[in-house]
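Loading example: each entry is read as two labelled lines plus one structure line.
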Amino acid sequence: MKKSLLSVVFLAAFFSLGVQAESVIVTLEKDNALAVIDPIAGKLVKIIDIGQRPRGIALSPDNKYLYVATSDDNTVKIIDAETYKIVGQLPSGDDPETFALNPAGDRLYVSNEDDHLVTVIDIPSKKEIAQIKVGIEPEGIAVSSDNLWAVSASETTNMIHWIDVKTNQIVENTLVDARPRAASFTADNTQLWVTSEMAGTLMILDVASKQIIKKIKLNIQGLSIDKIQPVGVVIDKDRRWGYVAIGPANRVAVINAQTLEVEKFLLVGQRVWNLAFSPDQKRLYTTNGRSNDISIIELENHKVTKSIAVGRFPWGIVSKP
Amino acid sequence: MNVKHKIKKIGMNKIIFIVLGLFQSGFVCAEPIQIIKISYITQEQKIPAALSNLDEFIQYKGMMGATIAIDDNNTTGQFTGQQFVINKIIAPIKADIVQLFKQQVADDVSFVITNLPKQQLLQLADLDSAKDKLFFDSTTSDDDLRNQQCRDNILHLLPSRAMRADALAQYMMKKQWSKWFLVTGMSKEDQLFSKSLKRAAKRFGLEIVAQKQWTHTYDARRTAQSDVPVFTQGIDYDVLVVADEQGLFGEYFEYRSWKPRPVIGTQGLVPTAWHKTHEQWGAVQIQNRFKALAGRSMQEQDYAAYLAARSIGEAATRTHSNQVQAIKDYLIGTEFALQGYKGKPLSFRPWNGQLRQPVLLAAARSLVAVAPIDGFLHPKTELDTLGFDQPESSCNRQNPVNNELATAIKNNKVDKQGVTVDKLIQQLKNYYNRLNGNK
């Protein structure tokens, strides 16, 4: 009896491993749901109701839990990443939009856009441990992988606020171009990449000096400057390539992360918002807010290979093995 | 207890911490405080006649918009070492605005946000003491203030009547509702908007098949039901275009016309800088913040005053200056990109000081479209498909070329130096290209 049960378990484990090699999970802002996609097969696997207006999403470092900001419920939901069942929720302050996990996966830094705050949440105790006053309308947020810095971008104040994670205090502010949207650290934590939606620029900040060391104006031939509105930004772990989603330009900019020059623009779906790498960093996934799909980019040759319809207003995106 | 003793008690770790703390706060306020002084000036209004009591009259429209923007500026200012101070001046209904301005707007105030009609605005802007100030007009939509009557020291935050009419016309083109029946009220403002509508119709190839004036010669409240059908009978048209800025009769046309036709213009589908139905591009945030502060929804003039004070803030932050010339140069330069919750960066047209911006087309409870409508193209920015574009503008705003020209002509040097008309035209072209950032 015991033996047969054990073999069933093994079989199940083997089965699930074989079938689901990789999943992409997308928040659907208008459907109040998560979409689970099999990117290899190019199929939408399932839709899961999650709560009001889900936007930011993150995966725990051990791949066990998903965290989803349900903005209009004023909470961050904890979801079992295998079963997709809601297993808990975290306090988040009002109207959480985006958040970042620290490398250990035990702290969440949440942007509260309406209250101009960053809320720090201790995940094990599910307690709010600090609220940090930042500029008007904070949005993009990131934690460095060496766990020294949390940065918050405020859209109306036009600043990057550098929060020391040990003291939860702002220690420096960098003035950036108009309406900064997203920020990402390079894997070596020497640079911070920041997008400006209104100026149409990508700014590279030096983490040591907190100064802008390079500004890249994203001009696309044939498109008027009004359409160049950079949003999501990611950089690969070897810092060979960086990618910027350019919203209504419907394109992703491919940037050589060594020379800091734009290599090319890839046409994806409409109003491309956020970006996520596959776990092996061989593919890049994009959420396209207006065409209600995701695009898959093969990174070896920088070709857009697939688009998969997912639901209304896809916003945040993560992938898991 | 002496200091030494105290230090011993606190312990070395804590001292390091305190020193660090001082160091950190030093970062936050790295520069000495620079003060940017702004005056906001408005005049109380008599409550105008209205068609219905549904919409409460709002006194001091605009003021709360400026208040929020100053708060926003000061949030940035606390990180950059700048402080924005606003002095709000409210003139009683019959007060002499010029006198009040002279008394209350000090010499060291460089920036003046006005919520005043055209005549008063010009009176102030033309004062000798106003020459070195920059005015932010957050109220008027007059086309002539952007053309013949323009001033070098005024920037306009709200869309002109021409921009509004063009926004409507673009959407009508898209819908192919090309036959317009234009109804104009009796006021001077109605005539002006009617003129802009005709200009827009001509510009975008729409046809005005009929024009009539609503003369208020009957008791409309009792007879709208019978008068409007008669008024609109016997004409074949796609859409009824109303010019009734004060809102005295326009609302009568919906559901009462002889033929089932939509109403656009000052009623029905309206072109506006801001509307309570607008939620996209982060607009929800500012709508909520405004409501929390003012206890009502944000009106166009609040939005304009908000943008005025935010423009000053943005320019002061970027230039690290409180000087009028530096701020003005930045504002009309190519670097300026203001976030205005309308999906596109806002900037000023250097030729007439008009803020470039999308125009919302809104119905009472839904945002229908945002102009410029997709497909209306422009070599520089699609926003310039609305209103008076550079070649169309008759604004003779003070600029170097004009000065050079004027002086040259005055001194009769044109012939002596062998300057030909062609050369002058080339010079002008170069100047405007430079202005446009073209090579």
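The interface with chain B takes residues 113-114, 116, 135-137, 155-159, 161, 169-173, 175, 177-179, 197-200, 224-226, 229, 248 of chain A (CB under 8 Å).
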